[in-house]
Design brief:
The chain is an alpha+beta fold and about 400 residues long. It contains five helices and 15 strands. A four-stranded antiparallel β-sheet has the order 1-2-4-8. Strands 9-10-13-15 form a four-stranded antiparallel β-sheet, with helices on one face. The protein is elongated, with a radius of gyration of 27 Å.
Amino acid sequence: MIMIVIMVIGFISILVGTLSSSALASARQEKSSAALTQAKEALLGGAVSDIINPTNIMPGSLPCPDTNDDGDAEPIASGVCPSYIGRLPWRTLKLPDLRDGSGERLWYALSANFRNHSAARPLNSNTKGTLLVYGTDGVSMQTQAGYSAVAVIFAPGNALSTGSPLYTQMRNTVAQKNDAANYLDSIVIPGPITRNNASAGGPFIAGAKSDTFNDQPLFITTKELMPLVEQRVATEVKQALINYYAANNYYPWADNVSASTDYDANDGYNRGWLPNNIATTSSAAEWSGTARPPQWFFYNQWYTLIYYSFAKHKKPPGACNPPFCTANTLSVNGTSGVGALFFMPGTPVGALIRTPTDLTHYLEDSENYGDNDDVYITPTSDAQDRDRLYLLP
């Protein structure tokens, strides 16, 4: 009986220890997941509100990584980030000092074409991330859906000491603490190919945790970022057009989609691209003052993506060019009375390269691009990154 009691007690001790270890691992992973999610939301919010660099407003841009562990994004030097992998710049993002479940600060990789610098222009809905993230099966986790990552955030986990020297992480000296290779792991995937998360440009790996791999990544794709940025852009465009109409009692002529790629307004066209220049070929007033989108709108060529239309009685001086300006009000979903509208295009699907003279690359519904009339519908796709309709009063 004594032996049985001893065995039972031993079994219970082992079971409790196993459960405690499992619970601890689960708690650590949950803390890491929460920190990653908070970091991702801050990066998305910062890109939309553009808190990164108020002196160079560039909605959609993201901060350079922090390479000296002070919490601040490194300043751009000679047009580039000093490194495109480093720690998450939590101070720059107005975040608390985020830590993963092992008490380590988060790491962060950035797609170079989303840095906040004029050399990265134009940054708009046609801009795609360049970072690839692979699963342990060797298949890209983005290219299946046609999107690559704009940024990748890593919870590095505790230091590993087993396996090959690739997994031996030293975090003692200042230099070691600022070296991504001492926090982010590598793994061999089918091929065989070695993927190393400490590589600035990737490709990166999202593998199952093991004795030789414990990185926990979270990535941001173009299709997640750009629809949010487009809402910011649409707000600016809508207000500028409202102010333009209030100042002039008409809307500017559009740029003809099929005949031009200069984005200058063309007399007689009430449908087409929102013009970059209005008065160049038109008798209408030029953008000016508050009746003008902000300068970053033009720097980043957002006008090359926005299809817009206005009703006949809201036209500038001059005659309409048949078959344009067919009705005194526009019709949307079978209801007339709309004075003006525009579409934000979403991100290009898959490997599509948009052509300025092909509206099917920007709008998904044939009623909006194929009938050559003043009749429109609300986009039927409710996907986050598809085209969206905005109405003007």
